[in-house]
Amino acid sequence: MLPSDDAPVTAPSDVERGSGVALWRQIVERIEADIHEGHLAPGTRLPTEMELAERFGVNRHTLRRALATLNEQGLIEATPGRGTFVKEPPIRYPISSRTRFSEIVSGEGRAPSGRLIGSRVEPASAEIATALRLPPGSDVLRIDMLREADGVPITAGSHWYEAERCRDLDLLVAATGSVTRALETLGLGDYRRLETRITARLADEEDRRLLSLPAGRTVMVVEAINGDPQRRPIQFSRARFAADRVQLVVKN
Amino acid sequence: MLPSDDAPVTAPSDVERGSGVALWRQIVERIEADIHEGHLAPGTRLPTEMELAERFGVNRHTLRRALATLNEQGLIEATPGRGTFVKEPPIRYPISSRTRFSEIVSGEGRAPSGRLIGSRVEPASAEIATALRLPPGSDVLRIDMLREADGVPITAGSHWYEAERCRDLDLLVAATGSVTRALETLGLGDYRRLETRITARLADEEDRRLLSLPAGRTVMVVEAINGDPQRRPIQFSRARFAADRVQLVVKN
DNA sequence: AAACATTTGTGCGTATGTATC
DNA sequence: TGATACATACGCACAAATGTT
Questions:
Q1: What top-level class would CATH report for the domain B91-250?
Q2: What is the pTM of this model?
Q3: What tens digit of pLDDT does each residue of A59-103 get?
């Protein structure tokens, strides 16, 4: 069975044996390059493992080792019975003084949506009190949300507000599905991002459930402080982003 | 054997049974709070699992479930035979127009060091050519480095420079262990960060080897473009940060 | 070097509550 | 109302890593 003409690039057999670099690693680098150069567009289906193995002149096990690495890197995704596909590139998510989920997602040509998961008033922990510059233990309103682009979950997280200043904000969020619009209604539409802190970790059960992630994926944990035009903190948030669906971008 | 007086907080048995919230989850929240409030300082050793289980009045398995969650969250770390410890907080790593590894690490009161892993001249991939605004395939100098704070690996990555403009930069980096100082010698000390892109993924074998990470940890993949004062790109870099040792911070 | 205690890591079996069909 | 599946919780035993004597 000869390779068809419309097959993706991943050029035929140019791996060097005994070059000191493992065959599977050479294959990783070739396919990686093909994806980065744009020869393999997002959504493209790769040839079957058997076919690829033949082209590179290696055993299917060797090829699978390469595909496993590319999968770990988040570049491809394999489904039994369907094939292996080049993944869609992540949403570019700019972090700036004016960071708004819905605007960013719209700007990427995708449809944003938000869903209220829950809300309650609770005493502020030391961390949240510091961020919001409130006395520790003050009442804060906590709002848990899930946010999606084209129905795909992007981020899930909690937002904390000074309870007194933001009465009924949770109802407004539930009604509009948007924090921005809810804050506008309260006359706080002009908020701006003051600080953003970013770490990452393995997605736990809850992350996976909320964000519909398979096991072994990672989330970026993004803490943010938003304030009013006078830079007084209004909101502290801690959200988990599906790491392989988002790329955070900082411009200076 | 009674608990000693100097034992950490994690108050004795105040978990509610049949409250609708699983016991292990209540324990997570208590210890989490103790860490965040500062009652459990970084580096503190927690009581043994047996002891904690007794204090909370639960089975050791139940307690272990709570510890596993805290471990996933990166708050604690356990070693067989030694015990369970509250982790040191991550280095705060500000991303700004003037982002310098050594300055940041020094500013955190830690000793920065850098080690050259390798370097070579290679043709620019499409991505790198775009970032550096060079014709695709131009010669670029690639420098691979590992950077540490107090001897602990923080980040490993590649830096690409226009080959012509940065001749012998690799030798300077090898000599000084610092990209900043090497660039200064070439009269390019005044570079500034133009753009930063951040994603995250599970650490692969190479990441784990370079960064001395145990299996299952995550890395943040940070791509950066640095330019001269006229905002002409000088350097493109792609580095992997040990996610549980660093918190990237963006101020607006 | 060898024996030992301490502590976390892992496995098995069992019982109970809770949500779902 | 069952029937079923799943998460929670407990008890006991042993393996593996570490530090000390």
A1: alpha beta
A2: 0.80
A3: 888 888 888 777 767 788 877 777 888 888 889 999 999 999 999
Element (H, E) at A162: strand A152-162
- Out of B33, B198, B217, the one facing A198 most closely (by C-beta) is B198
Residues in Cβ contact with B208 at an 8 Å cutoff, skipping those fewer than 6 apart: B214, B215, B217
- The answer to whether domain A12-86 and domain A91-250 are alike in fold is no
pLDDT at A142: 92
> What are the Cα distances from residue B38, in Å, to A165, B3, B9, B110, B247?
28, 21, 10, 21, 18
Domain ranges (residues) in chain A? 12-86, 91-250
**Strands, sheet with A218-227, edge to edge from the N-terminal-most edge strand:** A112-123, A139-149, A152-162, A233-242, A218-227, A192-202, B246-251, B91-95
To the nearest whole angstrom, how far is the Cα of B21 from the nearest Cα of chain A?
Answer: 15
The distance (Å) linking the CA of A30 with the C1' of D16 is 41
User: What pLDDT, on the 0 to 100 scale, is given for residue A13?
Assistant: 46
Topology at the third CATH level for domain B12-86: Arc Repressor Mutant, subunit A (1.10.10)
In whole angstroms, what is the distance from residue A85 CA to residue A73 CA?
13
